[in-house]
Design brief:
Blueprint (H helix, E strand, L loop, with lengths): L22 H15 L3 H13 L28 H14 L6 H15 L33 H10 L4 H8 L6 E3 L7 E3 L5 E3 L6 H10 L9 E3 L11 H7 L6 H4 L5 H12 L1 H15 L22
Antiparallel strand pairs: 1-4, 2-3
Helix pairs in contact: 1-3, 1-4, 2-4, 6-10, 6-11, 8-10, 10-11
């Protein structure tokens, strides 16, 4: 298990000031161009960061390809955005060879994804190194499942040095992005006629009807639904308003309004977007500092999908 402060002191805001001063601009331009071609990219990059940092820390271990790597676990099969990170890495290698880690590129790309979609512009330190270990067996014990209870989620967040407040605030990442139908169909049951019936009574009935139309029985496994039904491409506080209306897509969303403490945080963030943005900046900084590797721990990969030599 990793604490958010284990090696974060090795990170700095001017880490590449001399060695690669234009790194942040190169990452931002790559993310912006990719997002203009495919508006789903910001949500994918943000999700990719969460899945990286919660397993082995923020070390780009989720980017490694091969048998038995993190990417092969069912929880990670639907991850996207990998080509964007690879593209940014190729550009950076031209100007600053063997200097910038894939872990830093991923953290910066996720940060930029928030700003590009209307969220706050925040500074994050750099200096992460890339991990050499990526094992599918490490994924399940560390990743939040969409069917989790608040206690189950809180336990994992605490193990990463993140508080209950951080849990609610970072759940706001669901203000952008989409999900496969299979991620929330545990809230329904299929009847013999191939129709879905709502079994999770905490979900708004009209919204549930809308979901069954978007995800009919027998729908393609690639069918997706927006996390936020109203402003899916805008990073804003609407996600929290959606929760208060009992229209959280996942069980793990809905549980946030069933507990008095988390419900109060949700209500505060729903009522004040600036409060959400300020809180996001603090919690995101903690997220991107989980279990970072520094010094002789890790390497600077030449290609993000493979370890060196």
């Amino acid at each position: 298990m990793f604490s958010s402060s284990s090696s974060s002191s090795s990170l700095s805001f001017d880490f590449y000031a001399a060695s690669c001063p234009s790194v942040e601009l190169m990452v931002k331009n790559t993310v912006r161009q990719a997002s203009e071609l495919d508006p789903s990219i910001p949500g994918k990059l943000l999700r990719l960061l969460f899945h990286d940092c919660f397993v082995e820390g923020c070390d780009a271990s989720v980017l490694l390809q091969g048998n038995g790597t993190e990417r092969t676990d069912p929880a990670n099969i639907s991850l996207g955005g990998f080509p964007v990170i690879d593209s940014a890495k190729r550009v950076i290698e031209i100007f600053c060879p063997q200097t910038v880690s894939c872990a830093d590129i991923l953290a910066l790309a996720a940060r930029d994804s928030v700003q590009i979609t209307g969220g706050p512009e925040i500074q994050i330190p750099t200096g992460r190194r890339d991990g050499r270990v990526s094992a599918a067996s490490n994924v399940r014990p560390n990743i939040i499942d969409t069917s989790f209870s608040l206690d189950e989620m809180s336990k994992i967040f605490n193990s990463k040095g993140l508080s209950l407040d951080d849990l609610v605030i970072l759940s706001g990442a669901h203000t952008i992005g989409s999900a496969h139908c299979s991620a929330f169909m545990d809230r329904f049951k299929a009847n013999p006629k191939g129709k879905f019936t709502l079994i999770d009574t905490s979900l708004d009935k009209d919204y549930a009807d809308q979901l069954t139309k978007q995800c009919p029985a027998g729908a393609s496994s690639s069918s997706t639904v927006n996390n936020d039904p109203q402003t899916p491409l805008q990073f804003d506080n609407n996600y929290f308003k959606v929760l208060l209306a009992h229209k959280g897509l996942f069980q793990s969303d809905s549980v946030l309004v069933r507990n008095e403490r988390t419900m109060n945080i949700v209500a505060e963030l729903a009522n004040d977007q600036n409060r959400f943005f300020d809180s996001w900046a603090v919690s995101f900084l903690k997220l991107t500092s989980i279990g970072v590797k520094a010094g002789d721990d890790g390497e600077i990969r030449q290609t993000c999908s493979a370890t060196n030599g």
